[in-house]
Amino acid sequence: MNHIPLPQAPALAHIEIPVYESDSNPYRYTQPWLSYPARHGFDFIAIQVSDELHEYPGGLRSNLAAFVQSWLFFGVLEEFLGVKQDHDEWIVTTEKGHRVIRTSQLCGKLDAWRARIKQLDGNQQLEVRAGIDQVLGHMDSMHATLSWTTANIVQTVQVGSGSYHSDLLPDELNLSLDVLHNTLSLARNVVFPDAHLPIPTYTNSRLVHDQLAKNGWCSSEVSRLNQECSVVSGYFSSRLSILGSPTIHSKCSHWQCEAWQVDQSNYRPKHVNTLCDCMFVGLPTERIAEIIRVSQIPCLRLDRRGTGLELVAIDQRTPIRFTAISHVWADGLGNHAANALPHCQVRLIQERVNMIANAGSTPLAPSDDQPFWMDTLCIPVGSGFEDERNTAIAEMATIYRRSGTVLVLNNELNSISVARSPWELSARITRTTWFRRLWTLHEAVLAEKTVFQLQDGSVDLSELQTVVQEWDDSSKFQDLLCRMIFLEACQPYSKLLLFKSKSLSTRVRDIWTAVQWRNTSYQEDETICFANMLGLDLSSILAVSRYESEAKIKRMKTFILLQKYFPQGSIFQGDYSDLTRPSTTALVGLEWAPQSFVFRTRKSAPEHPDTQLALADELGLHVSLVALIPDKGWDIFTQAEMNSTVVGDLHQAFFMMPLEWDYFYVVRWDMARGRWDLANSLRHKTFPALILQQDITLVTDEALDLGEAVGRKDGTSMTRMFDGDLIAEEAREEVLREMMMEARGETVEEDYTPERRSFSASTRAIIVAASVMDASPDTSNTTDSLQDKRPRAKGPNSNVAVEYQARIIQHVEVQKEMFSTYTRAACKQMERYNGSTHSINSCEKWSDRVRWCIQ
Ligand SMILES: [Zn+2]
Ligand SMILES: [Zn+2]
C-alpha cells in the first residue's frame, strides 16, 4: 500500500500486508501465467465454483493464501511489468520482526515500464496490451471466485449495498489485491488511452469500511464513497483519522443520514469554545425588517468599537460586494429565538470575512470591517415578522448571487491547514456535513464563488481542481495516483458544479442526482430550496404558511404545479417500501410525486440520463412510455404463486410477446407492499399494465453483440437467432427425433445443453391499474406539445388519441431473458427455468406513443 500517499498527521499509518508463507512449499511465481496454478496443484481454483471453494478446510487456508499471493500479487506484478521480479525487493521486515509487503517503488517501476512501452512499435504495443489485459481480467475473475459466495450476493441484494469479501482469504490479502488491480488498471489506461479497460468498483474491503466506521463516518457516507471512489481513494480516505464520534450516526441507514437534524425545541447557539460565556450580539429584528420592507439587503459588520453589530443596508442595484455565510445549523451558528449570536462567534466570522475580502492578506484595522450576510442574523425571526421573513427567504436567490463570495463555515474543517495537499483537502472538505444538507446545496448553486474556511485560510476547490488537472497523462504515476484521489474524492463538489452550470430551465433534469445524499431538518423548506435553484417565483409556495397542517404536502403540490415539467423517470424513483402511505385527498393526481425529493435516488447518476420531460398537472404526470399489457388481466397477478427469492418471498409472473420466440420477461412483486388493496378494489374497472422505464423489448442478443445501447428508439429491424436454414434444419430434426422417442414410449433426454449464451436486460418499471381517462373538461388542457403523438390504443377506435389513467400499484424490476433452446415449447422451458409449474403468459406491447397519466 505504500505507493498510495498518506494524509498529513493526524492520520493513520498504512495497513501492513503480511507476506503469507507456506510451511510446505515456498511458492515462487514462475511463468507461464496460465499453467502456474496447475503446476502447484491449484488447478481446481479455475474450474470449481465459488461456493465449493469456500468449503476449503480451515487448516489449509494459510497454504492457499501463500499460493494466491504468489500468483495474483507477485505473478501479476511480473506479468504486468514484463520483467522478472525479485520478491525480496517487495518485502521488508518490520521492527517487530514481521515480513510485510512494501510497494513504495511501484510507481517508479510503472514509470520505467511506460518508457519501455513507448519505445515499442505499434504492433508490439498491441501485443503487450493484449497480454496485460488478459492477466488483469484473469486476476479480477479469479479474485472474485476466491472472495465471493452466493451468501455475499444475497446480502448485497438484501441490504442494497455492498457486502464484504468472504473469509476464504485474509482481509489484508484481499485489500492488497484490489489495490494492486486498481493501480495497474489505472496505469494501463493511461498508457493505452484508446481502448479503455473498465475498472471494477472494488467496494468490498472490510478493513477500509471498519476503519471508516471507527473514524466516525456515517454508514450512508460510506455508501456514497463506494459509489464515487475506487479502492485506492477509499483507502486514502480511511487514513484520514477521526472525523467525529461514531455514536452520532447510530440511527442512520446505508442511505440516509439522520445526524445533524436540528430540533428547534432544544437548539442552542454555541460559543467558539465551550467555556466561553460572552454576551450575544445582534440587531433588533424590527430594524432588519425595515430594511427588507424597502427592498434592500440587510448586511452587517462589527461596529467601530468591535462590541456590537452595525447595519449596512445595501441597495439591490448598487455594486457593493459582501460575503454571504453558508453554514450547517447543527454546528451551532443558528438561532431560532433572536437575530443574534455569541460575540465570540461574530468576531471570528468578521475576521474570516475580512480575510476573504482582502484575499488572504493580514486582517485590516477594525474600521475596515467588511460587510457580510448570514441567515441567522439577517432573516427576521419570531412571530410578527412572517411577511418580512418570507420576503427575505425569497430574496436569498438574489443575495447569494449578488454576494462576491459565499464562505462556508463547517466545524469539521477548523483544525485543517490550507497547506495540506490538494487531494487531502478534497477528501476532507467533501466529506463534511455541509455536503449532506439541502440548504447548503441551494446556497452553493446560487453563489458565484464558494470557498471553504479552514484553520488558517480559505480554499476554493475549483482552483485546486485547475491545479490538479494540469497534470496530464504524461505526468509521473505518483502524481496521476494523487490526481485520481483528488478527482474521485471531489465528486460531490463536481456534481454540484455540473448542476450549477446548467441553465435554470434544464436543471430539473438533474434534480434527482443533485439532491442525492442530502437531507433537511424541515421538509416544508425543501420546496423553497428547489424553487430558488430552478429560478421559480417563490410566492405561491410561501403563501402556504409553514405552520399550516400538512404544510409540506401542500407546498410540494404547489411546487410541482409551478415547475410543471419533470423527468419522465420520476415515476420510477421508488422502491418496494414506497407507496405504502395512505392516499390523502390533498394528493390526488400527485401520488406519482415524492413527498420529499431527498433520499429517493440511490443509484449513481446514469450515463445516459433521462432527459425527456413530462408535464405535471392536477391530473397527474403525463408520460409516453412503453408498456407490457398482460392478456389475462389482473388474474396474472392475483393467481400468481409465491416464490422465495434472494430478496424474500415474492410473487412472480412470466410473459412472452407474440412472435418474440427467443425471449421472455420476468416480473416479481411483493403483495405485502405497494397498493394491492387498491388494485383489488379497482379490479373490474381497470386493467394492469407494466410501464417500463427503458424499452428493453428492443434489446436483443444480437443488439448487445453490436454494442447497441438499451432503449434504441427504432426497433423495427429486430432479428432473431437461428434464422439460418442449416440451424433450422437441425432443430427440426431434433424435434422430430424427440417426437419419435415419445411415440415409442421412450424417455426423452431432458438434459439438453443450453445452446445459447446467457442474456439478460432489465429495467425499472411500475405495475399500474390503468383505465381510459375520465372524460372531463380539464383533459383538453393537458394535451399540449405531445398532441401529435397518437397512441395505439386497444379496440376499434385506434385512431383516437387516448390517454390512459394509471395509478401506481408497485415499483418493480422487469427482466428480459432468453430461452435456453428453441426446440421446446415455451411453457416447458419455463418449467426448467423455474423448477415449478408456472405457466407463461402472453402480453401485448404498447409503444411509447401511448400516453399515460400517472396519478
Ligand atoms: Zn449519519
Ligand atoms: Zn463566547
TrEMBL record:
Annotated ranges, domain Heterokaryon incompatibility: 322-412
Domain of life, per lineage: Eukaryota
Any Pfam family the entry gives: HET
InterPro entries linked: HET
Residue ranges, annotated region (Disordered): 775-798
Identification of the protein by name: Heterokaryon incompatibility domain-containing protein
Organism: Cladophialophora yegresii CBS 114405
